[in-house]
Sequence to fold (302 residues):
Amino acid sequence: MRASPLVLVGLLVCLGARSAQAYCRTTTCDPEREDCGSDENGCALRGVSLFWPDACVTYAVQVNGSSLRGISAFDTDQAMQGAFLAWLGTECPGGGRPSLGVIPLGGARCDRAEYNPPEQGRPLSPNANLVIFRDEGWPYPNERYVIARTSITFDVITGAIFDADIEINSFRNEFSTGEDQSSNDLQGVLTHEVGHFLGLDHSLVENATMFADYALSNLGTRTLSSDDRAGICSIYAPAAEPALECPGSTGPHHGYSSDCGSDAHADASCLSLAGAGTAGRGRGWVWLAIGWLALAGARRRS
Fold:
């Protein structure tokens, strides 16, 4: 398989409002390297749309959480579960729910955004879709005002997603958890980033969760707009007969590891965006593990 890196960056820049149903899907076209064109809604005209080809997706939270901001890995996992529930538990415009499930894998020791492809003599290179705080410094000097970024590795031919990692800029930003917001709402930030994780690009609709400016003056980013709902349901169309649980073999490509899998991790080049696949998988449900699990023993763009 050919893999390529993608980086989706949420910048705090205001854009004008547009009409509803103007969601954009992320494609394999990288505007940093080529002319992707754009339609009236700012969506790329070239490239194949990204999607998860699996019945379920998984993620793990880096075990350190953010000591700088006093946020535990457990609190982060709770915010992630709320973010995924907003997307995969939403009611689609024509009825039913998006056909994708999600399984939290608990805590992971790895603190790198990486994808480990199979190598000669190493057919299985374990991976994890990670959520990582950056307390000691934001390693992207050209993204000073970025609150968070999502890096995706995908097949450049089909658009199938292999891996996605979310990094949170806790070095420069405070975050609040719970229902009483005192600063940037962590669950709101993660709801936006999970939209990228699932294959959506920024929207020009001002009240959309995928609007590039997070607009974190309230908790509204946690709640999807009609534009967001139409977008997620276009990628994972509801199934006629929803499944009840995730298959037992579901996991990251090439297996799961709590530790970083390789020193030769994928290089994430920056896609600078103005602002903060195949439909239908035979499923129509959202599934979240109950409770906190203990430590479990291409092209890439952000």
About this structure: Helices lie at 73-88, 186-197, 226-235. The chain has one domain: 1-302. The mean pLDDT is 80. DSSP finds three helices and nine strands in the chain.
